Amino acid sequence: MIRPKRVTGKISRINVLGLGEVLEEDSKSALEIPFSLPNEIVDYVKDDDGKANNVKVKVESPYRKQPSCPQFQKCGGCSLQHASKNFVTEWKESVVAHALREKDLYPHFRATYVTPERSRRRAVFSGCRTKRGATVGFKSYRSNNIVPIQGCIILDKKILEFSAGMEKITSLGCTRSTTIKIHVSTSENGLDVCVSNGKPLNKELQTKLTKIAIEHDLARLSWEDELIVLLKPPIQKVGELKILPPAKFFMQACKEAEKVMVEEVGEVLKNENNVIDLFSGFGTFALPLSRTKKIFAVEKSSEMLTALELVQRKTPTLKFIRTSRRNLHKNPVTADELFEIEGAVVNPPRSGAYSQCSELAKSGIKRIAIVSCNPLTFARDAEVLIKGFYNLDWIKIIDQFRWSHHIELIAKFSRKF
Ligand SMILES: C[S@@+](CC[C@H](N)C(=O)[O-])C[C@H]1O[C@@H](n2cnc3c(N)ncnc32)[C@H](O)[C@@H]1O
Fold it and tell me: How far does the centroid of ligand 1 lie from the alpha carbon of residue 308, in Å?
């Protein structure tokens, strides 16, 4: 048998997916080497699909550290636990700086905020049935295998403690040939759980699922759009305000990160009284701002806006919040409609807010805070605003997706004239 040839190479950089790269002989293409760091010397076997396997690090980077999670390299959730905290921070800043450099933008970076360990308050798990019962966890790197979450240093303890419950739900509610998705969020009254891609519901399944919800002291358990059981209201708090969200909903991944984001957005818009919150969700920014400002909240999801409207009705001390259900990609709020608005917060999904920023660029809005989870679409949208006579004053990275390649940032834009 011919032994596969081992190749030695030097890691030239970490790419935007958090993977090390070795330049190929043609110096044009690069081979991805996961869990490596710049300047490390690695040797590996290149398989028939052109992927590096059986990687061994021969010379280690000084930024290398011992990963804390026992599942690291098996679980696909983290790609950078082998790197020091400073390295990850600097690398995330460099990814954002690079995306902006491509647009000829060189902004000032404020100090990055890094969330604590075990602070992730929402996650989506995969579950499948096995001969012995069920496995629940995150998909592994480069495969559909599911890796259990024991020892995870990202997740809130209350979510980790629900692993056994998720296994029971999977054993009962997943067919042999499918994978279910279990969306879990912490709430003020226990976990809020919503399952998708499960078996069709029937009376027996519903009764058994209700028993699991009671056993694990859940606040709410939903099956796609159907409520299985509401044991306690799954309240989310924004400051002191209490929100009852729909079954599948968005909230910032970590409470601590959300607090910093709300403070920074508040600082950007401190002198503006008439503010629009674009992609508002249930009002993470709109609600705190509405203590002192008039708010126009715009969002596609009717259920999220209903949750926001309910809080407003119950809280007479808030200033006026106007809401609009609207697809901002297809039907952005136009510059004419923005006539009286002085400030904006824009927090789009990963696809960004190109159409909306094109309208903002034509408006007279004085200050804009963009909160983005995608440096590439952010750089594209920032360019549109800069061409419309805005300054990019600063950027701050909020590392709420620790040890992954995902990046969250806030940026302040001010109108030049
Ligand atoms: C990143 S989340 C931000 C939500 C909110 N700002 C927060 O911090 O909780 C993006 C929001 O945009 C909404 N959304 C997605 N696509 C949209 C579209 N085309 N038009 C309007 N809203 C959209 C989603 O429903 C979601 O609430």
Answer: 13
Ligand 1 atom at shortest distance from the alpha carbon of 348: 10
* Residue 119 in tokens: 């602070």
How confident is the model at residue 141, as a pLDDT? 84
Count the alpha carbons within 13 Å of 298 in the hemisphere toward its beta carbon.
Answer: 22
Q: Which atom of ligand 1 is nearest to the CA of 351?
A: 16
State pLDDT tens for residues 79-104. Answer: 999 999 999 999 999 999 999 999 99
* Residue 338 pLDDT: 97
Residues of the chain with pLDDT under 70: 1-2
Choose the residue to mutate in 185, 276, 279 for probing ligand 1, maximizing ligand atoms within 8 Å of C-beta.
279
User: Among 218, 281, 294, which residue's Cα sits nearest to residue 253?
Assistant: 281
Token pair in block for residue 248: 């599948």
Contacts of residue 407, Cβ cutoff 8 Å, sequence gap at least 6: 92, 95, 96, 373, 374, 375, 397, 399, 401
Q: What is the pLDDT of residue 236?
A: 98
Instruction: State the pLDDT at residue 1.
Output: 65
Residue nearest to atom 8 of ligand 1 (CA): 284
Tokens read off for 186: 């912490």
With CA atoms as reference, report the closest residue to 166 among 148, 189, 139, 153.
148
Q: Spell out which residues line ligand 1, taking CB within 6 angstroms.
A: 250-252, 279-281, 284-285, 299-301, 304, 327-329, 347-349
pLDDT in tens, 5-21: 889 999 999 999 999 99
Mean pLDDT of the chain: 96
Q: What is the pLDDT of residue 267?
A: 98
The pair phi, psi for residue 13, each rounded to 5°, is -165, 170
- In order of their start, the domains of the chain are 6-64 (2.40.50.140), 89-116+254-415 (3.40.50.150), 122-236 (2.40.50.1070)
Output the residue whose Cα is nearest ligand 1's atom 26.
281
Residue 339 burial (C-beta neighbours within 10 Å; 0-12, 13-18, 19+): exposed
The β-bridge relationship of strands 241-243 and 236-238 is antiparallel
